[in-house]
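Give me the fold.
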Amino acid sequence: MSTSCQGFTSLLNGLCQQVPELSGSSVYAASKQSVGGFDLLLTSSGRAKRLWAVAPNASALPDELEGTAYSSPSVAAKCCPLTHANALALREMLPWTAPRSLRNERTTFGCGDRLGRATPGHLQAVSRYNVSPVLAQQSIRELTLTGRTFEGVVDDVTFLVFQAGFTGGFGADGDHLKTLDDINTAVDAGMAMITLDLSEVMLAAAEKWSAQDVEEAFGQLPADVQQRISETYAGKTFAVESASVSLDDIEAKRCAVMYLEAMDFAGDVHDLLLKRRGDAFDLEISIDETEAPTLPGHHLFIIRELLYRNITVSSLAPRFIGEFQKAIDYIGDLEEFERQFAIHCAIAKAHGDYKVSIHSGSDKFSAYPIIGKHTNHRVHVKTAGTSWLEAIRAVAEASPALYRELHNKALASFEDALRYYHVTPDLNAVPELSSVPDDQLTAFMEHDGARQLVHVTYGGILSDAPLAERFFATLDEHEDVYYACLLKHFNRHLDALGLTPTA
């Protein structure tokens, strides 16, 4: 770090006395970076964070950053707000603050952050393992309920990655996107990963159709398509690693009816990503938003049709047997889950070794050993709400009275939240809030019913502006408590997957 940055401390101390909004400013030590003839760093004062450029004189300060310049006889500095323009400039100056493709990384972990505050805690956790984080991960549903944008999500992560001084690279996931317009918006924001949700272009209802109905629908496909499907799949058995997957005539036709239109749409999305980002993208195919589990034969059909269209897939998310409900452990027969999961992994390994993706992947501690074993850690695990719950845990620890308000707001918002999320908590089993003393409120975050209650009601809580303001103020004041909660919780996830800490 340059001598000008060392002189910045004296300048900042003087400014804190002259400029009220800078009072109490402190520097995030890990953020200090030298860039050519100037230095960059991040400060915090109260709830406000600011980016600073520091140089020996004013002429050396970067014009690319918008802000207010200050100087002393020995140093010049520019105080820059955390705006989109400054995020763009920072990503140009320090490319490691921009999302990138993680296609070639073995283990990736989706760290969805609905609040734009969790990244330093996520990084403290994943930095201990050979894991690549996807830090900017949001769905349209989450953006709607939080009032955020893809642009804002990526910018928040850019500044927080800079705060942490994390140079290891990270992904950004436009999650469960269904339209070309939404995908373009996510790509415009810099998101390098698109999770393509095919639920609205695949004909899931055909899963339950009679053979006669399938035959009739299949007969409406072009003759050359019918011939190709029959010759390629009908009555065939495919070797996948040490397993085999078979498709009889009617099931091959059923797959064609269910998935061919979706495969063509996936091709359109792939073409868009190639045009917009060259080869620097990750495309995940999501077929998990269905009522019925994805049969191994269907998984095989889908990936072979994707490959037939020359679609490069980084990961694929089947709908697994059992229930992957939000915020709680796996529900179902673990032995049957392992039997089917092993075949899904074998299909992936035999068709390019793309990553199997686990959606609603947080807190599935009983299933993690199985997932780690059969993927050999070539896997993508997607989480989001669990980081929100750790924020609630941090608030319960720091401000019990505020937690009680949040809990009551969650109860009032629960029925409305069910329009967006499928969860089945037994709220009658959740302890009465009034019966729990302040020093035991964090125990609600260990209770399945309470976890699901609070998990799905974030929209109702954050839409209450006065309550949300106090929530964010408390979280900002106690950010180290939040980071510690995230570190502990995510370490538990990564350990359960069988990953070995590197530090």
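The CA atoms of residues 211 and 250 lie 7 Å apart.
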